[in-house]
Write a sequence for this structure.
């Protein structure tokens, strides 16, 4: 029997518009139901009787959450991308402007495998009180930008800043903890570090992010074009290294990752990766791991450099510094 408290928490945290909802069909589409969404219907969703989707924007274009949708069809490594998004959310800002560099506390975030154990993830960020959809969208795109990801790779909900006559119901997202009618798999809450399943009741421990009136006013003053991220798609088709190979590479880099040399070492390593066809995700994981082990205070900048190289310097081909650069550094130490 589903805990009644969980159904009520689902209503409180996910449902902005309660006068209509949608039900997933066996073939995967949704049909709108213009009836009140009650806790009983949410319980049926949690029990797998039917799969419910909710409309994100209410009649005033306010939302209770923003969501990142990561699918293996669009990403080489959805798990690594999810880890990068979580890292950006949880990392303390060194900048004075917390709006430009938002920090999200773990108690406001839910990591979900939408069809466990497939690598298809949702990252939900809850707000303490509903905020304008424009604010949620700006924050979502800003976080995506800081993680060096594109909206073409990771969908951000809300997708619109307000409901219109043409789109009076806004965005539709499947509620978590239900049964996927097409894939025939359950949604599961996951641990941020291990990505292992947690009880759905972890939702009872979540509360929302609070934004000051000043922060809200500042974001609302931005024009839409200010926060529509310039899209870029990192190269597809490169192959990830095996876990053992990645760990071996990490050990090698850590040995020589010293101040005064680590910048050149990263550049040479990235040149090597690009020439050898190593995937962007593998390179990102390796650099992140090396920074963690060496307590590199410039970790964020180094991860951004990975994305920059893969996007902008692949065309240099043979001109990229690679093995020769690595040898020079090793001999110098």
């Amino acid at each position: 029997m589903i805990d009644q408290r969980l159904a009520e928490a689902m209503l409180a945290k996910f449902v902005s518009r309660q006068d209509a909802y949608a039900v997933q069909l066996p073939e995967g589409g949704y049909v709108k139901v213009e009836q009140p969404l009650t806790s009983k219907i949410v319980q049926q969703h949690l029990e797998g009787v039917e799969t419910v989707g909710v409309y994100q924007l209410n009649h005033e274009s306010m939302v209770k959450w923003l969501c990142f949708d990561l699918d293996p069809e669009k990403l080489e490594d959805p798990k690594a991308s999810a880890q990068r998004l979580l890292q950006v959310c949880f990392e303390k800002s060194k900048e004075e402007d917390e709006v430009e560099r938002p920090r999200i506390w773990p108690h406001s975030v839910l990591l979900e495998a939408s069809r466990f154990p497939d690598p298809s993830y949702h990252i939900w960020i809850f707000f303490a009180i509903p905020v304008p959809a424009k604010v949620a969208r700006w924050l979502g795109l800003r976080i995506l930008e800081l993680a060096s990801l594109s909206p073409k790779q990771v969908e951000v909900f809300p997708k619109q800043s307000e409901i219109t006559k043409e789109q009076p119901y806004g965005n539709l997202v499947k509620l978590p903890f239900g049964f996927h009618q097409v894939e025939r798999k359950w949604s599961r809450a996951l641990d941020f570090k291990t990505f292992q399943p947690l009880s759905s009741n972890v939702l009872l421990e979540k509360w929302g992010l609070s934004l000051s009136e000043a922060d809200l006013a500042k974001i609302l003053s931005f024009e839409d074009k200010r926060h529509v991220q310039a899209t870029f798609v990192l190269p597809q088709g490169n192959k990830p290294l095996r876990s053992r190979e990645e760990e071996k590479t990490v050990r090698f880099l850590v040995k020589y990752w010293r101040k005064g040399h680590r910048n050149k070492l990263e550049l040479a390593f990235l040149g090597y990766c690009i020439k050898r066809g190593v995937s962007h995700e593998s390179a990102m994981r390796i650099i992140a791991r090396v920074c963690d082990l060496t307590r590199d205070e410039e970790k964020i900048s180094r991860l951004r450099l990975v994305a920059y190289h893969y996007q902008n310097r692949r065309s240099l081909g043979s001109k990229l510094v690679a093995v020769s650069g690595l040898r020079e550094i090793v001999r110098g130490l």
